[in-house]
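idk why but the lab printer keeps eating my pages so im just putting this in chat instead. protein + EPU:
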Amino acid sequence: MQKLIIQGGVPLNGEVIISGAKNAALPLLCAALLTKETLKITNVPALQDINTMLALLRQMGTRVDATPPMVELCADSLIHLVAPYEMVKTMRAAILVLGPLLARAGEANISLPGGCAIGLRPVDQHIKGLQAMGAEINIKHGYIQAVAKKLRGARIVFDLVTVTGTENLMMAATLAEGVTILENAAREPEIVDLAQCLIAMGAKIRGAGTDVITIEGVSALHGAEHAVMPDRIETGTFLVAATATGGNIELKATHSHLLDAVLDKLTEAGANITSNQHWIRLSMQHKPKSVNVRTAPYPAFPTDMQAQFMSLNCIADGTAIITETIFENRLMHVQELKRMNANIEVEGNTAIITGIPQLDGAHVMATDLRASASLIIAGLVAHGETVIDRIYHLDRGYERIERKLSAIGAQIRRVN
Ligand code: EPU
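predcted complex ->
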């Protein structure tokens, strides 16, 4: 198993090119199932989750021509309308094929994702929405077995804000008969990116980026070309790493509108940030100040940046409170940070962090994708050597992170 070894204490200085967003690219690839024609997606990040999704789409009969960062997909004949357990268990986003398959082929058989490291993560809202659109859905032998001769437009009010739930139903509704209205929809930028691609494919969608999305079904979609938006979580992760190490960095191919809530918190921590449409610059001259964080759906502070801010607060001046409201088990990095001497108390889904002058390097274990990123940040500021185990989580969502970090001065290497 591979590990990362980090020698802490070096400020990050230099330029990083931000990759396309994992959580935008995954639904975009699934949108290829909605048309017989070719969908060309550019700025696709080279990640394990992308490889898993492409393998899934291939086994359904999609022809895939991947020349990173470009992928061409042609689903002119769908032969196998199944997402098997083996694939869904390694990547929950596989649920995103459900809506498109049902809309285009009238049938889908998708393994029910189980709970995962960060929480239970049910998919009841995806199912409820498709049922409202006329699908007949049975759960049998751990699979969602769905059939619908023709989906019908419906008014669907989500019980809670769900990102992939909104994406799944938005895709399904593009080919349904009549108008679908999604209320209490997620407003994440990845939803807007998907809507833009679907519109380029001929879909009629209004309101993406607000909490009411209206989709007028059309009889068929056509091919298109679309560039994946920048990864706002990768962007935020590098910004926190630079803030924590007292660095000076410029991030290219990304922009600040995607992460206002995160930039506000970094400014509150003492970072000096400037940006335009194409880059974000951050410099940090002093020790960071503690910042309270409460996660919530976009445009509020993202759960996917919570762990990174935990590490920042560990070495900040003062005491901070971090409350995780999206997932019920997303504080697992706390135990690992405590092994590095962090002063953190946890009560339910709230962590109280009292900053200390320095973390100690230690042997730690990554428990999920964003927890892994928090351990890297902790390792970069710690005294001495940090060894991070189980880094396969990182490869699911960060493109060549150790290479990007080394290029801006980090003492980090991957070993077998
Ligand atoms: N939920 C339900 N029922 C549903 C759907 C969701 O109860 O039918 C609950 C979930 O259990 C959770 C909350 O609603 O408590 C929000 O979940 P959501 O559905 O929004 O999460 P997701 O769509 O499964 C996406 C990202 C996650 C990110 C969350 C929240 C993708 C592929 N994944 O997950 O990304 O944390 O939204 O912003 O877009 C990551 O990249 O590390 C990651 C976990």
